[in-house]
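Milestone 3.1: sequence recovery, worked example.
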């Protein structure tokens, strides 16, 4: 973080569970009020490198599609057929997450030579089972869990700093190797995605260590455990809600 950026404490709205944890959030001082430290610096770096990355990944994805469809078509044995299915799944997973999810959030809208990834025109294939299961396991981990704060509908933050704090309190990260993170579309860094939803996934991974330091410096728990443990907690929380409060509470939690 830039040494010129300082912070002050502001109140955080009470969550649905009746606690604000520390009850405070971080906010920029007047000296840095016109600059969103991490955001400003990271967005300033967006450009040709990000466009090259998504184009390169898209070419890989399209190649995997070709390989997958070819293997499925010519396969005479279960092994070849399975390899084709895996290649086709990798294509669909990349299109839906690392490429598509970021595109639909407008990550490339203002970048030159990235028209193919514009949010208003980008589209991906119809639903597919393996892709949807992987994506669902990613999304539920980021938004659901016994320690994840939620607020009544219509709750508004009292300041920009409180808004940042609410995003941290309402999300989970989970730890996976970089290749798996790419297949998750960077949403293993759900905290960073909530803070800066229009950043490309690779930038989310880059800023995560700094965001973690900022959160911990100001008394917020930066939740980031293994994917298996986080998923187990999320599903356990959903099951507990269903048993204690019924289906309506589950729908409210995952909405």
């Amino acid at each position: 973080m830039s040494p010129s950026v300082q912070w002050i404490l502001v109140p955080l709205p009470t969550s649905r569970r009746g606690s604000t944890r520390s009850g405070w959030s971080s906010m920029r001082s007047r000296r840095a009020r016109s600059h969103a430290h991490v955001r400003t610096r990271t967005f300033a770096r967006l450009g040709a490198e990000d466009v090259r990355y998504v184009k390169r990944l898209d070419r890989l994805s399209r190649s995997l599609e070709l390989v997958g469809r070819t293997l499925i078509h010519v396969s005479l044995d279960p092994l070849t057929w399975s390899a084709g299915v895996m290649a086709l799944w990798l294509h669909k997973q990349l299109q839906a997450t690392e490429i598509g999810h970021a595109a639909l959030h407008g990550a490339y809208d203002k970048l030159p030579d990235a028209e193919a990834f514009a949010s208003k025109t980008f589209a991906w294939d119809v639903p597919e089972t393996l892709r949807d299961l992987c994506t669902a396991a990613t999304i539920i981990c980021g938004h659901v869990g016994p320690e994840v704060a939620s607020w009544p509908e219509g709750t508004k933050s009292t300041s920009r700093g409180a808004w940042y704090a609410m995003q941290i309190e309402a999300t989970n990260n989970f730890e996976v190797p970089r290749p798996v993170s790419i297949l998750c579309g960077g949403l293993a860094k759900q905290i960073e995605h909530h803070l800066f939803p229009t950043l490309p996934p690779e930038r989310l991974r880059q800023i995560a260590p700094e965001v973690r330091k900022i959160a911990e410096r100001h008394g917020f728990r930066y939740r980031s455990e293994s994917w298996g443990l986080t998923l187990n907690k999320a599903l356990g929380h959903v099951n507990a809600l269903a048993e204690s409060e019924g289906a309506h509470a589950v729908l409210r939690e995952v909405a």
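DSSP finds ten helices and four strands in the chain. The chain has two domains: 7-42+138-254, 46-125.
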